[in-house]
Amino acid sequence: MTYIGIDISKATFVAAFPHGKGYRTETFQNNAKGIRKFISKLDHAIHHCVMEATGNYCFLLLYLLDKTGIRASLINPKKIKNYSRVMMSVTKTDSKDACLIADFGERFKPEPYKFPSEQIMLLKQKKTVLRQLQKQLTATKNLLSSLEPLPVKDKKCLNSLKQTITFLEKQIKYMQQEMETVVTDVFDKQLKLLTSIKGIGVTLATALIIATGGFTYFENAKQLSRFIGICPTIEQSGTSINIRGHINRNGDETLRSMLYVAAWSASQHNKACKECYQRLRGKGKSGKVAMIAVANKLVRQAFAVVTSNKSYIDGFVSTKPDSAL
């Protein structure tokens, strides 16, 4: 397999092709015409493209590569950054980055990117817009609150802010309804399974479906927990260092926060989560550590009900079959 490294920006992307003992680079426009020109130079039987996850700028290229049948991998930028440090690279240009990404692909042979369904792509866009609208609403409300104590108030400014708040609230409600409609139409079964778990509501269930591509991206719950960023880190070296540290925090911050909030409810009403919380608190663990453990248990429960296609039964205890039988 021949690996092509790609460094993407908004308007262009640089591709590094193997050439002799090194690489040659070529720049293409990051639009449909430029991407088709790039694809015309590839052979789907031998070429594998590797690129960093750079927001939305890489997805048109990924989409057209997928439609053409050419393998492509999307790499966490942190991996490329750390690889650059390992290789002691002192020069950072688009061409050098493309060569570095190609070398990373050649050494580590990353798995091909699993392109999400169109429904998941639409849901991700709606989720992004909804999050931004909520941030704007909070900022506008804070601005209005800061103006109200002033002795001399500009009524036009206050009215403008109030109208903006009303508009944002309507748009947020509309976008939430749109997301619920898509999830109900396409992922109705998964939504019902997830919301059968005490502690997981429609909003969190929808976020989990989006993050997992309808639970198709991960093979087990541990992979999902690591992706979300709620797995504890461990530092061990010789006899002097042996630390079980904080969570890794590598994933979606919003989803991680939603799980943490849901864990509070689950620790009170979900029997397995409540037992987990009380057990850890009884061992002297802090409330925050115990709550993170509950959030992890919620993830495991969510993964279990979807993969088994069975609704959650509160207090259910699995029994292993007798090996003697």
Helices and strands, with pairings:
Blueprint: E1 2-8, E2 12-19, E3 22-29, H1 32-39, E4 47-52, H2 59-68, E5 71-75, H3 77-86, H4 94-108, H5 118-147, H6 155-186, H7 188-195, H8 202-212, H9 221-228, E6 232-237, E7 241-247, H10 253-269, H11 271-282, H12 287-308
Helix pairs in contact: 1-2, 5-6, 5-8, 7-8, 8-10, 9-12, 10-11, 10-12, 11-12
Tell me the count of domains: 3
Biggest sheet, in brief? 5 strands, mixed
CATH H level, superfamily name of the largest domain: ATPase, nucleotide binding domain
- Compute the CA-based radius of gyration: 24 Å
- Give the neighbour order of strands across the main sheet: 3-2-1-4-5
> What level of helicity do the residues show?
55-70%
Strand tally is 7
Query: What proportion strand?
Result: 5-15%
Quickly give the CATH architecture of the largest domain: 2-Layer Sandwich
Counting helices, strands and paired strands, the structural category is: alpha/beta
Name the overall outline.
Answer: globular
Helix and strand element order: EEEHEHEHHHHHHHEEHHH
Report the CATH topology name of the largest domain.
Answer: Nucleotidyltransferase, domain 5
Put simply, the count of helices is 12
**CATH class label of the largest domain:** Alpha Beta
Low-confidence stretches: none
Mean pLDDT: 89
What's the assembly state of these chains? Answer: single chain
Distance between the termini: 49 Å
Summarize the entry for a quick read.
Residues 192-278 form the Transposase IS116/IS110/IS902 C-terminal domain. The chain has 325 residues and is of the alpha/beta class. It contains twelve helices and seven strands.
